[in-house]
Amino acid sequence: MTLPGRFVGTITGTSMDGLDMALLDIDEQGSIRFLAARTEPLPLTLREMLGHLAHGALDNEIDALGQADMQLGEFVATSIMDFLRRQAIAAQDIVAIGSHGQTVRHRPDGQTPFTLQIGDPNRIAEGTGITTVADFRRRDMAAGGQGAPLVPPFHQALFGSSTESRTIVNIGGISNITVLKPHQAPRGHDTGPGNALLDAWCALHTGAPYDAGGRWASSGVVNDELLQKLLKDPYLALPPPKSTGKEHYNLDWLQQHLPGIDLAAEDVEATLVAFTAQSIARDIPADAEAVFVCGGGRMNNTLMQELAARLTTPVAPTEALDVDGDAIEAAAFAWLAYRRINGMPGNAPTVTGATAERVLGAIYPP
Fold first, then answer.
1. Interacting residues of 16 by C-beta distance below 8 A, sequence separation 6+
2. What percent of the chain has pLDDT over 90?
3. Class assignment of domain 152-313?
């Protein structure tokens, strides 16, 4: 018998700008209803520590890892409790929390593939008194998968159509697509960079954490020489299944492509927008009848215009389907917690490359 009810999902994401939370109600038939969503900004010191860990920039990484794991777990717990208070919902009314945690390393290829997410689920369960599900990615990887992306099955449950071929584009720090065709298993992969390079370059040159609305990029001019260099990145030519992260797409990677090209900073930003848009557009199937975009990148008007210019398919934010584009990733982990509590598989082998479906996540009782 399926256990329905209310589930909370959380994720900090590749951009590390805040903790996204979503509250879902899932009934006996698995129908999904969004109840609320909220983003809580990460404390600056914690955000900086997580960024340094992700880039391998700390001398004593094990101590720093332990501290960040504990601090993020406690932050998630207090943020969830505040989120529930704002909704006038008691902790005992929540079946489970699905916590993705913060990815600090993702190495899906090679002889020793691994992925590591932190944000101690023991502290989340202790601080909330709610059953917590975490560590979603490693079981898929143990079964031969990439461990990512995990959101496509949720996209299928939420956006799948029996009559229309759709592609869902999530533009977070890294971009990924989900290809949804009627009566077929979902397909998808990380296409390459999303906001990661745009935000990093903007912060370096303007001090702002991101280019609001893409206005700074719109003041620049795309440089074709740099664009062509970026498009030769070997990751883009790899066949799916594939996944990537800030371990690959970061400022050091970008700086390797800049020598010999004298550009204004805003021209580099404009070129990065074009690169991001093209790396997404080239992977969207030609027979897609609609493209819907979620994640923070949909708020970058310049990026959305560049993406639309490269496609003949209509492009719209997921709000066109009455779904908050900021809440989808967090909601996916609420849904994955529901799947884990009910012993249902959470991965899509057609996406990750795992040998078979697997039940994902470890359960931490209150």
1. 42, 47, 50, 51, 54, 102, 173
2. 93
3. alpha beta
Considering only CA atoms, which of 338, 47, 352 is closest in space to residue 173? Answer: 47
> Both tokens of residue 299?
């708020």
Q: Starting at the earlier edge strand, list the strands of the sheet with 32-41.
A: 32-41, 18-26, 5-11, 94-99, 132-134, 362-364
State how far the Cα of 93 lies from the Cα of 73, in Å rounded to an integer: 21
Give the domain 5-149+325-364 fold: Nucleotidyltransferase; domain 5 (3.30.420)
pTM above threshold 0.90: yes
Quickly state the pLDDT bin for 20 (edges 50, 70, 90).
Answer: very high
Backbone angles phi, psi at 10, to 5 degrees: -140, 150
Angle, nearest 10°, between helix axes 121-128 and 61-86?
Answer: 30
Phi-psi label, residue 101: left if phi above 0, alpha if psi -120 to 50, beta otherwise? left
Contact 213, 300 (CB under 8 A): yes
Where along the chain do its domains lie? 5-149+325-364, 152-313
Q: What is the DSSP string of 246-291?
A: TTTSSHHHHHTT-TT----HHHHHHHHHHHHHHHHHTTS-TT-SEE
